[in-house]
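@channel sequence for tomorrow's demo:
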Amino acid sequence: MNIVYIHQYYRFGPDGGPVRSWYISQALAQAGHQVTILGSHKGKQILERTDGLVRVVLFPVAYSNSFGFIQRLFSWIKFVWYCRRWLKTKVFELAYLSSTPLTVAWLSFFFKKRGIPYCFEVRDLWPEIPVWMGIVPRVVGRMISYFMSSVYSDAFSVICLAKPVKEYLSKHYRLSEEPLLISNFSDTDFYRQSRKDNDKQLQLVYTGALGDSAGIYELEMLKDLIKKEDLNMHLHIAGEGKWQETFSQNEDEHHFSYHGFLNREEIKALLNTCHLGLVLFKQSEVFNFNSPNKYFDYLAAGLPIASNLKNSWFLKEAESHSCGFHLDFQNHDKLLGQLKLIRESLISRERSMHALELSKQYQPEKQLRPLIEKLAKVYT
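structure tokens (generated this afternoon):
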């Protein structure tokens, strides 16, 4: 089957990210399908390459985490325009649309008009999250929700990354059938290696974008607290984005390191020296729906996790498997006590073994099997 996979933020190779798109596209190709990925890059011309088993077409559409809303909107619309123009002269049997950005949903009408079935992957709840955060007016949100209802109902399959998202869509939208839950992946084979323990200090690590949704306040507070109290800990931050300058000029030899952007191999090396992975978001219940890549990477590397989102599905899951900790950034003394207890509990490797055991249920081959079986139904 000839499949077009559309995700604006796709980058060439597993190091470019998002890794999820790379895994899915390669798995589809390994199952015997012809896969073409439409993505974007910061250049000035359309690039066509081969990435493993798939063909990749990258449109010249710049995007950055530091963009304002108008810049982002222009980037999203431009990408959809390129896709429509390119698709007019091509023939495909199935489309895989991955949001965000939500604007990719506009392409669903293009495929519906041509009688081509499409899968729609819901990475985040849009427009719900920006409405709940006050970024988008509720009246506009209702209009977008009405539009998304048609996108979901016409989809051959709706794919969710987290159970709360699946439950929300099932409750609030009319769907032709139950959404398919395919979480992000823990690549235990990639991260498997001998750990380089540092017995003198507890090594904490945060990886990922440093944008508005990240726990910037929490990271700053944690960095300052470790230094002020002279805790026997070292905080590592690896990532880039709007708030990266907040950390890039404040390195501390004993307590804090900012690594900037790291590729996947470099992330692997860093995680191999750490003891605890941080999953921190801006303090809001809306992020309980997220499926953060870092959570799955930490588990695959054998790192217990700590989060400021007490009611998030991923923290509850990690806690139930004895490899998760809640950090209360609203109470200085309580946070200090929690950090000390965490250090004591991580002296043994037992928590790490629990994280590795949990990661096995998110191995790519297990997660992707239902998707491959679902797409096989298109033949019949």
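heads up for whoever presents: The chain has two domains: 2-184+363-379, 188-361.
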